[in-house]
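Crash report, auto-generated. Payload:
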Amino acid sequence: MADQTKTAGVSSLSHHAVAGQDSTLGPTGERYFMRFTLMQRYMHAIMFTTFLGLAATGLTIRFSTNAWAQHFAFAIGGFGAILFVHKLCAVTLTFEFLYHVKDIAVRILFRKEKGLLWGPSSMVPNLQDLKDIIGNFRWFFGLGPKPEIGRYAYWEKFDYWAVFWGMIIIGFSGYVMWFGPFFGRFLPGWALNAVQIVHGEEALLAITFIFSIHFVNSHLRPDNFPMDTTIFTGAMTEDEFKERHGHEYQKLVREGRLEEKLTTRPPTWLVNFSRLVGFTAVFIGLALLVLTVSAYFRE
Amino acid sequence: MYPFGEQRREWAKSLLSSRLKPARSLEPEKKTAFTIPSIIHTANYLIGPDPTLYLPACSGSRSITVRLRNLPIQTAGFLLRCDEQGHGKPAVAMAAFRWGRLIAVCVAMLLFSAPLTLHAQTDCLSCHGDVTMQDASGQNIGVDAPVFHSSVHGGLECSACHTSITAYPHSDRPRAVKCASCHADEAAALLGSVHENASDHPCTSCHGSAHAILPKDNPKSAVYPLNIPATCGKCHGDGAIAKRNHLANVYLPYMDSIHGYAVSQEGLLVAANCESCHGSHHILSHTNPQSSTSKTNIPDTCGKCHAGILTQYMEGVHGQALAGGNLKAPACTDCHTAHEITQPSMALSTPMCGTCHQAQLSTYRDTFHSQVSDLGSYVEVARCSDCHGEHEILPASDPRSPVNPANLVHTCGRCHQNANAGFVKYEPHANPHNRRQSPVLYYIRLFMVLLISGVMTFFLLHTLLWLIRSLVEKTNSASAQGEK
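Recovered output after restart:
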């Protein structure tokens, strides 16, 4: 491990010597590789913004007897304002979800991107993910090397599917509550009670998961503490690529397609802006997490 | 709504303190210019132009207070006497003044040298008309004649009340006045009441200064309906007195209530003042079943004015239960409180029902209805009474009840437009914690809880182990570099 890092450092330095003061490279001459497209980054931005809005207003409703909830509701204009913000964020997120589904459908049905459904670039879990989980746990206990992860790690796939199904479940139950009399025509009586439980509990899971596990795994990770901004800038350094997605990196090297992923160094303003946004989101999220957990266990 | 809060409290307090002043101070002070030097007698002292000049018989008198005062000429029957111990008989002296009548009276007294029979107020007022007059113990025994004349007792002889004083001179310790000798009904009503103890609660404590009592329909009377709250508030609005007697300090809550507002701000004679509910002389503790404010009598007491509500209440389950002897059933004051008279439209009404209906409150708390009512001051939302009714609460089995299954579409439809048979199958009091009551919801909730705990346990463990491993790796690589 230490050797790997050292070698990478040396290669970077040598590259720096060749490249000189190329502004597309990092301060020590490292190359940058594209991880997320601009659209993916926008999608993430819309999602976490609406998610924070939904969480802040939803928790206020869920834990409405708490003083903080009542003060917050009062501050932004009472229940009417809370529900308005909640629905606004929900509708925005619904459109994003529908856009994403449409995008996937187009790519699979019309562009025939088979890799989207199965394979190393797919979000669909496969046997390799199971091996990675086992390998990672072996590594945690010092029983084996750190597994080389592909394009999407199993915890990233979990993030994706948790949000995907979460949006379907929370979204559907939310719309049932919103248009109760309409859904009351087709759904059995108990379903109207059930959607409320499902909506609240699934949302609690999403909130506690995102604000603890996702934050730590994807943004506050120890190898890039205190803020990994890849999802904001879209780019990661060659070292980060090798370290985090070694399997994909080596595959690209073998296939001679690594250069396809090359991108320029993100501008300083974007890096700073990303940090600001990231820290703000993390701060809000952690505050909500503390309130949620304390209110949940006081119930 | 009317003004609540600090400002209103200050106003109510100021009203109280102005009432605490003696009634006489409300009258403008009568000031007349000094014209005649006159001689007035108080219990022990001779008063007048230096008495030693013309009272040789009273050589023993001491501490002579000299006060000059103008008296109406017709009451100028000046009696000069020295009450010094040891002087067996009153020493009557004559003042050398220019009026013959005065001299004649004094001469007559000198001649008869016997007690004078008192007939008219004027006789008493000739001395007691001095409003500053004090007895030996310093107690004021003066009577403000004009105020007394306009009082409800103004036409009576003094001796009608002060029965032990029939002649002059009179004892320094006349018998106490007994109002009961005339007002027997009121005295009888006071017996057994909370104000029975006459030394703590003399008639004057409510009716005001003895010589200034006005008929109760006189707006200046202390017991005029609009003045009653302040009169009762003299004691019941005084924190110290209330605390000493283990009483609730009810004056300010009452004044803040809709009743207090109607009386004090709107000047409504028909609005409830203290007497309307508690009665006047025969006030009993609410723990006494005979009391108008005892639990079983409260509906009728409030119903004296709120007759329509009383009818509704007696139709409903609460009224029926109370009438059937269930003292746990709420009377008016259990929901509205006795003195504040809280409005059910305030958020308070929900927990209030929950004091008895705990399970229902708990399940209501789980619903969107409750969440909205906790947070929203701008949104109409269903509280207990919106579905169950207010005074005429009927069991769901009653076809007239708004929560009877046949009426639900209409009841829910008051807020939820397009409510339909399917929609009203929603259970507003479902309990997902109770397997027998709501099995489907119980298992759904159980599944969700297991899902949350399963996912969180796995990933918290995963993250924790990852962090530990990363730290170990970092330390190892650092130490490896250090060795090199």
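Post-recovery validation: Chain A touches chain B through 56 residues (CB under 8 Å).
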